[in-house]
């Protein structure tokens, strides 16, 4: 990774953090648990890194596979449980 | 092809942002979650087309295995166990970042040492290992505390902070060795091991009711870990999404700290509740005179009320009383009583914990009112029912500067005409502080398990 490339990624980091702060400070307290569980699932984006790590190799491949299983649990479980929670939030009884 | 992959990553990043934006509105939140899941799927697909065909079967096996475990856990978890669930998933996210970084490092250091590795990459790997490792064991410790497998009390020992500091210095030393000599596998493994130990040590001194802060913070860490992994792999979608999660965790952490009137530093240093002991009790002291009330009498009070506010706390979750609370609400509403719920930001063990439990038992979410919006209404309310909450209604936070919770924003339950407190015993709240409210003129104690006393109350109310 060149230094220019690094600076470019740093730009992305700063801007994305700013967007994150703006978006999330508006989430109402009622939704804080689903928010947390959703963002938890989102942090499973490491799954992308894990997939890239499962390639030809010895130890590196097995480490990648462990990462992949863990990240998938995080992603799939996180989204599923968030959905389960959010479907319970209803306004008025029918 | 490469352009297509990059554009898919871009689309994925946009969908993540739109998905989170939709979480701002209760009606759209579920759709937002779906958006974000689709975004994840796009990112995964764009990545899958880059892998060698040879390893595809292994990848699929891992995904199916992880997916099955994830689905199974998410189906079987009880809503009261949500904090534990989030903690453990969070830990897996951290562990994944740790292993990705280690795997990448292994390729660079052992399997293809002839490749040159830039210093920014090495530093990113080190940070991924550190943050990922701390997130992993820290979250598992939080899981242990929340599920009662580890003592929920703050665990402190002498020289704890000094020891943590030494570990941190050791991490920096190992990091320096790895930076100077890329092939130094031992230093990397030592660093990973220390990070894992550190994760445990930073969470054990934190008491049960400070958990909302810790979970929020660990959530933020897992985002940061994903971010640093993005720097390792030179992948911008990891950085964008990691930053979103990092920001979300930090905001929630701030909200939780503010709601407890504590600084993040004081929460992290821990020991609250373990060391403060009883603390200087209020003027009422141990001579506090309390008034007990029976179920029948309490039911009569509710029956003649025209407005009721329920203050739920962690105790309601423990007693699994949320369903019977809703039944009670239904009956009272049929009798024309206005019933609302006052939610303190740190009620429960994670942000928004009470809202989820009450939503599960079909309480409409517009009945759940935030502290700032309902606090002025207590004075015009006939009856307040406190279920399993304690410190968040302790007037000492307003009146007694000597109290450890002085200055914490509380629900003004004491201002209501009558306060009925459903509580198992006179035991103090997590902060170990006596609650002055219980000795007040207008306060009645309804002793017993919340679920069974309220069930009796519901049947009494039905007969009236």
TrEMBL record, chain A:
Q: How is this protein positioned relative to the membrane?
A: Multi-pass membrane protein
What GO cellular-component annotations does this UniProt entry give?
Answer: plasma membrane
Q: Name one GO biological process term.
A: NADPH regeneration
Reading the lineage from the top rank, the first entry is Bacteria
Q: Which GO terms describe its molecular function?
A: NADP binding; oxidoreductase activity; proton-translocating NAD(P)+ transhydrogenase activity
Q: Keywords on this record?
A: Cell inner membrane, Cell membrane, Membrane, NAD, NADP, Oxidoreductase, Translocase, Transmembrane, Transmembrane helix
Q: What sections of the protein cross the membrane?
A: 6-25, 37-57, 63-82
Which residue range or ranges hold the NAD(P) transhydrogenase alpha subunit C-terminal domain?
Answer: 10-91
Tell me the first and last residues of the signal peptide. none
- Quickly give the catalysed reaction: NAD(+) + NADPH + H(+)(in) = NADH + NADP(+) + H(+)(out)
Q: What does this protein do?
A: The transhydrogenation between NADH and NADP is coupled to respiration and ATP hydrolysis and functions as a proton pump across the membrane.
Note the PANTHER family from the entry: NAD(P) TRANSHYDROGENASE (PTHR10160), PROTON-TRANSLOCATING NAD(P)(+) TRANSHYDROGENASE (PTHR10160:SF19)
What is this protein's record name?
A: proton-translocating NAD(P)(+) transhydrogenase
TrEMBL record, chain B:
Bilayer topology reads:
Multi-pass membrane protein
| Regions that span the bilayer | 6-23, 35-51, 57-74, 86-107, 119-141, 162-180, 186-206, 238-257
In terms of one coarse class, where is the protein primarily found? membrane
Q: What is its EC number?
A: 7.1.1.1
Q: Where in the cell is it found?
A: Cell inner membrane
Show the catalytic activity. Answer: NAD(+) + NADPH + H(+)(in) = NADH + NADP(+) + H(+)(out)
Q: Which UniProt keywords apply?
A: Cell inner membrane, Cell membrane, Membrane, NAD, NADP, Oxidoreductase, Translocase, Transmembrane, Transmembrane helix
Q: Name one GO cellular component term.
A: plasma membrane
For this UniProt entry, the molecular function terms from Gene Ontology, in alphabetical order, are: NADP binding; oxidoreductase activity; proton-translocating NAD(P)+ transhydrogenase activity
Locate the NADP transhydrogenase beta-like domain: which residues?
A: 6-459
Purpose: The transhydrogenation between NADH and NADP is coupled to respiration and ATP hydrolysis and functions as a proton pump across the membrane.
Sorted alphabetically, which PANTHER family does this protein's record hold?
Answer: NAD(P) TRANSHYDROGENASE SUBUNIT BETA
- Family, per the entry? Belongs to the PNT beta subunit family.
Stated name of the protein: NAD(P) transhydrogenase subunit beta
The scientific name of the source species is Rhabdobacter roseus
